[in-house]
Amino acid sequence: MSRYIFRRLGFLLLTLFITSLIIFVITQLIPGDVCRVILGREAGEQAIIACREKLGLNRPLPFQYLSWLGNFITGSWGDSFSTGTPILPVVMLRLRNSGYLAIMTLVISVPIAVAMGVIAGLQENRFIDNLISIISLSVVGLPEFVTGLVLIQIFSFEFRQIGLPSLPATSSQFPGNNFLEALPMMVLPSLTAMFVLLAYIARLTRAGVIEELKQPYVRTANLKGLPQATVVVKHVLRNALLPTITIIAISFGWLISGLVVIENVFNYPGLGRLLVFAIDRRDLPMLQAITMITVVAFAAANLLADLLYAFLNPRIRLG
Amino acid sequence: MSPGKRKAPILNIKNLTVAYRQGDEWLDAAREVSFCIQAGETYGLVGESGSGKTTLVLAIMRYLGANGSVRQGVIELDGQDLCTLSESEMRQIWGRKINLVPQNPQSALNPSIRVGEQLAETLRYHQKVDPAVARRQVVGLLEMVHIADPEQIAQSYPHQISGGMQQRVMIAMALSTEPRLLILDEPTTSLDVTTQSVILDLVRELIHGRQTAALYVTHNLGVVAQVCDRVAVLYAGDLVEDASTKDLYRKPLHPYTRGLLDSVPRLGETKNQVQLRGITGQIPPLGERPTGCVFRPRCPLVIEVCYQRPALYELTDKRRARCHRWEEIQRGEANAQQSSPEVIKTEPINTKENQEVLKLVDMKVYFPLRHSLGELVRRRKPRFVRAVDGVELKIRHGQTLGLVGESGSGKTTIARSVMGLVEKTAGDIELLSIPLPQKLSDRDLETLRHLQMIFQNPEDALNPYLTVGGSLSRPLITMMGKSGIEVDEDVAKLLVRVQLPAGYARRLPEQLSGGEKQRIAIARAFASNPDVLIADEPVSSLDVSVQASILNLLNQLQIDHGSSLLFISHNLAVVGYLADRIAVIYLGQLMEVADADVLFEVPYHPYTEALLSAIPLADPYAEQTQIRLEGEIPSAIQKPSGCPFHTRCPRFLGEICVNKTPPWRLDEETGKQYFCHIPVSELRQSQERVFTFKYSHPK
Fold this sequence. Notes:
The complex is a heterodimer of chains A (319) and B (699).
Chain A (H helix, E strand, L loop, with lengths): L1 H28 L4 H6 L5 H11 L5 H14 L12 H36 L4 H15 L2 H18 L17 H35 L2 H8 L4 H13 L1 H16 L2 H7 L4 H10 L3 H29 L1 H4 L2
Helix pairs in contact in A: 1-14, 5-6, 5-8, 5-11, 5-14, 6-8, 7-8, 7-12, 8-10, 8-11, 8-12, 9-10, 11-14, 12-13, 13-14
Chain B lengths: L10 E12 L2 E13 L4 E5 L6 H8 L7 E10 L2 E2 L5 H7 L4 E4 L3 H4 L6 H13 L3 H14 L5 H5 L8 H13 L5 E5 L7 H15 L5 E6 L2 H7 L2 E6 L2 E7 H6 L4 H9 L49 E2 L5 E2 L4 H6 L24 E13 L4 H5 L6 E13 L3 E5 L6 H9 L6 E6 L2 E2 L9 H6 E4 L3 H4 L6 H11 L6 H13 L16 H13 L5 E5 L7 H18 L2 E6 L2 H7 L2 E6 L2 E7 H4 L6 H9 L8 E2 L30 H5 L4 E4 L4 E4 L4 H7 L4 E2 L7
């Protein structure tokens, strides 16, 4: 097992190295001179040269790459081009917010999705299975800005109209001072994200359950005379949920960084919106920092998925 | 129960018909089957694939699934009709009154739950014992099935223990609740023969002396003869014959039973002594069962009356047979129209007799194990799977060399390496005295033409999108340089040679039965008129009634073409039948090489002796020495030093076997060569012939 962990860690570092290289090269390929961007069109030749000197842009590319990577690792992420403030605290704050939203989304969607998948799998090709499939697939087809707006319409406006407790439509004040008070602000964005995940996780769970139900060991368990519920929970799910757990862990990476649309719909101060902001302002250091942190989040989620899978699967854990 | 009165049977099946749904139709998979099993009795259910034996087992357990249904009949367990019970009521029967030992223990155990827990949960649930007691009972159960370290096995996951060990666990599980009915569904089919013999001993030992009724389902006539008290023979859903094991083997009354017994070569029989008869045709698929007697289309004794469905006639001595002509057969009056085929005499072509067409010199195939970074840093020696470890083989012109060994012995690796599919690590392969290039891509067309292969599984060996004609014309065009009308003519000739109608050229593989596909594969291999043919388990995926005709075909074609054959199999009876010379392989090394007719006589290499003693003989009267190998086959990564067989050898001498590589010895009398420290004279003195058939049914 320890050997397996080391192997996975090795792969993780390799992945991070290669992606950092790609990010660096791509930002080099973006047209236009960084100093031009910083100083504006009117800046004189002298000022540009001085700026390049100061930012170390005269040095050979490999050196630039290494110092950039070194700075990233040591946490010296520099200042934003657009705001002039240090990048690190801003990105970390947004990363935390995105983390909250990701966890909230998983807490809401995983039990629902897994339950739907298990029920559908156990009832393969019967009415309930078809119903679940139709619902989850039709929801996943809708873009997030549509589901988001519909949810706002229902839970914010309509509920308020008829005097029910409503949920906030915007999360711009998140998290404020009191986390508990801020909790309702995450509900609608999480629900919107849930609709994307739902079909994904439910379909995979369903497939896992159907596959495992065909295995001879399920017959063994049934023919032991164990109650149906024991057979399903103890024997089937233990194996059927292995791929699902992997997908859940991987989707955590997506939730951290991929919710640009949802964050915009709800004005949620997460990493995704910061990314759009950085792109708008051509804020290269900020852009690099956000992409790198996204990659780290993705890689970490993948590692988590692999380790969970290995831990839950004795065939890998014990070789 | 009053004395003298017959005890009520534990399982009583009356007039049972089971059907499967295909589209809108219900097709009978088992028809009007009746039998009963008494307490303490082991009842065998024999049949080939498609005979309905699995259907019956599932029906008895009421586990047919949504597509299957009991159409009529009664399944009584202790007088209670199981057909009237709901699923939740059946859950009170399962695991408590009926238990199953399945075919493949590997997949029948939950891979994610420890073995001990899988045993304990049944006890906790059915016997309401608390967890600590259940754990203690589990250890006791594992001891009952002769597991040496029960505590450790209980803590293991299924993948950590061997197949034989897994099957012991399944047997322990099945007996843990002292069921009334124990169903064993091909429990040793996935095991090696030496493991099988140990498991069969265990089954016999544990069933004996219990008041359990046992239903033993198998296709293996040898296993039935060794384990069962009574046997029922199934064919295409019909119970065609039912008798005590001894009666059945002494005098089969149904032509199908007779045909089955004639299809399998007996251990030690060679092609020069007998011609296997086999049964023509194949089992009709579900929904295409003929009217009248189901065996009619394949029966050699068919007459007018066979177009009516025969009753299951009750004979005096508790026998039953579903054949109109059983009385004539019993009196020995009914004989087949066609005369029994003549034995094909092999006449080696003298001029080339001594030419060695294929020669392996000290061949080694090692597969390197992947290194971890840590091991590289610590400069560990590289480790290898030593699949083939110094094998010397020679095949002469027109000769059949049988290579026999258990799984993992390296026999398939040898075949693949000779074919150029796997790279050898050391040694030489010579074809017609010319060294063979290692890689397939380095071999020229002529070499390919001379060396062809028949694979184990004909299902995978034929391209499903090519017609039979397409498959057969490939080698004719590429290797024989044929073109145009010549190709079609040769395809037709090839089909005739493998006894298929010429019209088959237009068929796709999916339109053929398993046996027909293997015929096509054989035709393709012979298309280039090869000097050497390698056949890796060519009949092991086929039913025994089909197997015989394929063996005959191979034999005939080989004689006609003068090809040499390397015939690889785990089945010593089949190898013994077809081969002129036999090599026995264990852990990548040859143990014994002998002519086929003397291999079965003393002196034996201790491993050969154990193999011969492990094979279940299809004769309940046969005498056989009981030699059982201890432990598991060692890993080919950490091979035992000295003689690789020393860890399990019943004739282990001591130090010398551990430390010193044995010499090759030659027995002057028989020409046998074997790899052992024990000298010929000593071996000959201490050994007796391992097996003797007592009763030989007329061929």
